[in-house]
Amino acid sequence: MRIGDVAREAGMNIQTLRYYERRGLLAEPARGRSGYRDYGESAAPQVRFIKRAQDLGFSLSEIAELLELRDRTSRSRPTTRRLAATKMAAIDEKIRELTAMRVALAQLVDACERSADAPECPIIEALDLGRTPVAAGRSDV
Fold this sequence. Notes:
Layout: H1 3-10, H2 14-23, E1 30-31, E2 37-38, H3 43-55, H4 60-71, H5 77-114, H6 122-129, H7 133-136
Antiparallel strand pairs: 1-2
């Protein structure tokens, strides 16, 4: 299969396949006499695996580890489970951060609505002064 065929079958563009090759996620295929890449039948399923793993939030480094586990004859369930559990914990943390940001923004929007007649915008003022509800509790601000 040529690169365009694999890209079409996997539902992505050619540049992404080349990037996966550069990152080592997809083995560089043999080249025919014409110089075109000649992919095997397993390329498209592997690319779809990579894409599905990305859709679940795995980084390319984590996907490389998952691909190694996938290719082992004796797959390691505990290692795969650990990777997935670690990713879930990171997603849970991100949800907590996003929830805190949303609450802070809601407070700022409410303050803006309550002070519609004030000359200064409470949202801009809070950002200028570093007094946003989220920033108040953070040590890195």
